[in-house]
C-alpha cells in the first residue's frame, strides 16, 4: 500500500491513542450516554437472527448491542488494543484482528454470507485512500445476495461524500438509502454526516 491507514498513523504517533479511545467510550457508557443509534438502525433493518459483520468494530460498542438484540455478530478491527477491549467488555460475539483491505473471513475459519455489514464510526474516512475501493469490494464479497452494507462517516475528514458514492458504484454497489443521521433524517447537500445503505448490483 502506498498510503497510510489514518487510525494506524494516530496510534504510531501516540501509543496511548487506542487506550484513551477505549476509556472514552467506557466513561460515556458509565455516564448513561446513548451509544446505541447505529445498533438500533441495523437491528431495525435485519430479520431476527441475522448474521452481521461489524467492519471496523473498534472496542465492540455497536456489535455488542446488535448481538444483544438477537443477531449473530462477527467484528473485525485492525487495532489489537480495540479488539482486546471488545473481548473483555463484550463477550459473546466473535472479535477478530484484521485489515479490512485484506478481509478474508473464510480464510480465518468464519463463513461469509452476512445479511448486513455495518461500517460505522468514521471507519471509511480512516482508511488509506488507495484501499477504499478494495475495502468496499471485500465487504460486498462477504454479503449474501440480498444483503446490505451500512456505512456512516462525517464530512471534513478527507473523503467527500460524492467521492464515496463514485467508489460505491465502481465496486458493484448502489445506494438504496442516503441519510444524514442514524435517526433517519434525510440526506441534504449540506449534511455534515452521511449514513448510506448500499446494495450489491
Q: What is the SS-derived class?
A: alpha/beta
CATH top level label: Alpha Beta
**Strands, count:** 7
Q: Order of strands side by side in the largest beta sheet?
A: 3-2-1-4-5-7-6
Work out the count of structural domains: 1
Question: Runs with pLDDT <50, length 5+?
Answer: none
Helix content: 25-40%
| pLDDT averaged residue by residue | 93
Give the helices and strands as they follow along the chain.
HHHEHEHEEHHEHEE
What would you say the CATH architecture is? 3-Layer(aba) Sandwich
In what range is the share of β-strand residues?
15-25%
Task: Write down the CATH topology.
Answer: Rossmann fold
Kindly provide the radius of gyration, computed on alpha-carbon positions and rounded to a whole number of angstroms: 16 Å
At the fourth level of CATH, the homologous superfamily is Vaccinia Virus protein VP39
Inertia-based shape? globular
Distance between termini?
28 Å
Give the biggest sheet: 7 strands, mixed
List the total number of helices: 8
Give a quick summary of the entry.
This protein is of the alpha/beta class. It has helices at 6-13, 17-30, 37-45, 61-68, 80-89, 123-126, 132-141, 161-170, and strands spanning 51-55, 72-77, 94-97, 114-119, 143-154, 173-179, 193-200. A seven-stranded mixed sheet has the order 3-2-1-4-5-7-6, sandwiched between helices.
Amino acid at each position: 500500500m502506498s498510503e497510510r491507514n489514518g487510525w494506524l498513523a494516530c496510534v504510531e504517533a501516540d501509543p496511548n491513542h487506542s487506550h484513551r479511545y477505549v476509556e472514552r467510550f467506557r466513561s460515556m457508557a458509565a455516564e448513561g450516554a446513548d451509544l446505541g443509534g447505529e445498533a438500533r438502525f441495523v437491528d431495525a433493518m435485519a430479520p431476527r437472527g441475522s448474521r452481521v459483520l461489524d467492519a471496523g468494530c473498534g472496542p465492540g460498542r455497536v456489535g455488542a448491542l446488535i448481538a444483544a438484540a438477537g443477531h449473530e455478530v462477527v467484528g473485525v478491527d485492525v487495532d489489537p488494543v480495540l479488539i482486546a477491549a471488545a473481548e473483555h467488555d463484550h463477550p459473546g460475539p466473535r472479535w477478530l484482528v484484521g485489515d479490512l483491505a485484506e478481509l478474508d473471513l473464510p480464510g480465518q475459519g468464519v463463513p461469509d454470507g452476512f445479511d448486513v455489514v455495518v461500517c460505522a464510526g468514521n471507519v471509511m474516512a480512516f482508511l488509506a485512500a488507495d484501499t477504499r475501493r478494495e475495502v468496499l469490494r471485500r465487504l460486498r464479497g462477504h454479503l449474501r445476495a440480498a444483503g446490505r452494507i451500512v456505512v456512516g462517516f462525517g464530512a471534513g475528514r478527507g473523503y467527500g461524500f460524492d467521492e464515496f458514492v463514485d467508489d460505491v458504484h465502481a465496486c458493484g454497489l448502489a445506494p438504496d438509502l442516503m441519510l444524514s443521521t442514524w435517526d433517519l433524517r434525510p440526506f441534504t447537500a449540506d449534511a455534515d454526516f452521511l449514513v448510506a445503505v448500499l446494495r450489491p448490483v
